[in-house]
Amino acid sequence: MTTKDTDAILSTPRSRITKHVICPFCGCLCDDIEVAVTMTGPLPRVPEGTIVEALNACRIGHTKFLKVRDEYRIYKPELRSGSNKSEVKQVTLEEAIKVAAKILTKAKRPVIYGLASTSNEANVKALELAEVSGAVVDNTSSVCHGPGIEAVQRVGIGTATLGKIKNYSDLIIYWGCNPVAAHPRHTRRYSQFIEGLFQQVEDRKVYHIDVRPTRFTDQVTNSIIVEPNKDYELLQAVRALLNGSDLQASEVAGVPVRQIREFVNDLKSAKFVTIFFGLGLTQTHGKDHNVSAAIDLTADLNHHTKAVIMPLRGHFNVTGSNHVSTWTYGYPFSVSLEQGSPYYMPGETSAVDVLVRGEADAFFAIAADPAASFPMAAVKELMKIPVIILDPKRCATTEIADVIIPSAYVGIEADGVQTAYRMDGIPLQLDKIVDAPPGIKGDDQILDMMVREVCRLKGIKRYPQ
Amino acid sequence: MPSIEVVLLTGRTRRQGVGLEAGKLSKIYHEATTQIRLDPSDLEKLKIEPGDIVEVTTKHGSVVLRAELAERASEGMGFIPYGPWANCVISGDTDSTGMPTMKGLKAIVTPTPDKQVLNLQELFDDMRKSVS
Ligand code: SF4
Fold it and tell me: Chain A residue closest to B84 (CA)?
């Protein structure tokens, strides 16, 4: 679309603009998007009710809003069969739910997985489905910030809201992450480039600590390059210096001790330190121990100044999936409900492990694409068992699935109250902007139908039949 | 053919993020996720140009990708954006955390001008063969 087209859309009374829309892509949950929707089609060939602009959104968020109805959208539930799932039969939603519920009830160790790109309301229903089916239920945090959550369970966490960080923080560290690639507006809305009530942009110092320089490194004031897999060593070296010990080495983890000293001096002289960390800490050797060390560093820093730490959460409601799981079953992810009571043991009850050990005999992906995000060893296991997927669009998992159930986009099309948690744990309500395609329901509604069908098949008297 | 050993990293790129929403079966996503980014000095050691085809092998598997230039200097490192192709060479072992090791693995990169980057369907067909 050209700028001229955009001007035409925005100035024409035939398009309506919804302001303060929340972008349902990443954990930033930017709430200042202005979405233009055609009313009677100001442009030729643009049907009514089409999203034609998403002002303020970054490239990724913009793509999400504008690609809601493209060639990969699924409009009818499908049952697939054949060796490479090429035989497709379109069915009604009720038929698809019957088949899916039968798969779940027949399985001995079904896995329900995903839940990060959908609402808290859908999470509530998915957990109920896991309970009535006796399943393992895991969200995508087990393959992103799960190890960080395990660290929090061990050592706690001192954190803050993004608003507080924006208003007060004068030293911001991005450790093991690249916000330019994964959270493009994070620095502009919450940290480096936003004027705070008590903090000027030009007085902020920003460190990027990572194993390689990226485009983000160009925009920060200081950069530290650490050897791959050695974040733990560097974190402990920083703690040692901060706590008054000396280092009997010229470098640690590839970083000259002189540079570590300068970093420690900057930390001590700052008024409000914020550490944002990414998967550079959780997906390398050390995993949860790296995050424990980073949290310990934050705690140590609070003897000298004010310091907080926060994971940069990826999917827009991955934080919510942890909250809902915790308030429902006491554990944030990887919960097994096979015994009738919740049991949590990452490494044993996490989706990848259950698959790789060959124990799963059915898999239900909800608003997630495990075939594109799990290691090959786990994807091969998915190919051996019945797979159900609930998602608006075709993705890698739809290509290996037996049952495909299309859903409405949460935060764009889904009806009813839909909420999500921002990466700092602030709950926000996501409103509907356009109608879903005819016959397409929201995840929470579809999962509710699934729960009822599983209850009916198993004779569980939870709902009036 | 000359080979080099690199430390393999997988991760997000903006293009891959756009590809997620443009569609996992789209050309944007395919192009964003079927590459390994290498330092110019490593491309030189391999005697290849950006866009040439290489095979990346770890102890967990191998995958054919396009070699591209890294954003910034990163000698001895190979970066593959997250996606089904990167997942062919990462470990399924989670060290009892639930999280596979997706960064910091040792990998060998070898030029393979006679091989082709598979599309998603072909990649899955290949996996299916080894499953059945
Ligand atoms: S930064 Fe994240 S939430 Fe904000 S517009 Fe971009 S993708 Fe959406």
Answer: A372
Q: How far apart are CA A117 and CA A128, in angstroms?
A: 18
Handedness of CA B103, B109, B111, B112 (dihedral sign): negative
- Ligand 1 pocket test target in A22, A56, A58, A180 with most atoms within 8 Å of CB: A58
Q: What is the CATH number of the domain that holds B48?
A: 2.40.40.20
pLDDT at B96: 85
Whether A54 lines ligand 1, by a CB cut-off of 6 Å, is no
A21 bridge partner residues: A33
Is a pLDDT exceeding 60 seen at residue A12? no
Q: List, in order, residues 6 or more apart from A445 with CB less than 8 Å away.
A: A415, A416
What six digits make up the tokens of A126? 């998915």
User: Counting atoms of ligand 1 from 1, which one is nearest the CA of A33?
Assistant: 5
**Count: domains in chain B:** 1
The domains found in chain A, sorted by start residue, are 10-66 (no CATH), 78-141+317-458 (3.40.50.740), 146-311 (3.40.228.10)
Residue B94 has pLDDT above 60, yes or no: yes
Residue by residue, what is the 3-state secondary structure of A269-329?
Answer: HCCEEEEEECHHHHCCCCCHHHHHHHHHHHHHHCCCCEEEEEECCCECCHHHHHHHHHHHH
Residue A41 pLDDT greater than 60, yes or no:
no
ipTM for the whole complex: 0.95
Residue type, A29: L
The residue whose C-alpha atom lies closest to atom 7 belonging to ligand 1 is: A61
Residue of the CA atom closest to atom 2 of ligand 1: A26
pLDDT value of position A38: 87
Distance CA A241, CA A308 (A): 19
- pLDDT of A434 reads 96
Phi, psi angles (nearest 5°) of residue A84: -115, 30
Domain that holds residue B117: 4-131
**Residue B33 identity (one-letter amino acid):** T
pTM: 0.94
H-helix or E-strand spanning residue A370:
helix A370-373
DSSP summary character for residue A185: T
Nearest residue (CA) to ligand 1, atom 1: A185
Distance of CA A56 from the midpoint of ligand 1 (Å) = 9
CA-based nearest residue to A53, from A67, A69, A37, A42: A37
pLDDT at B54 over 60: yes
Which residue in A288, A379, A394 is closest to B87 by CB distance? Answer: A379
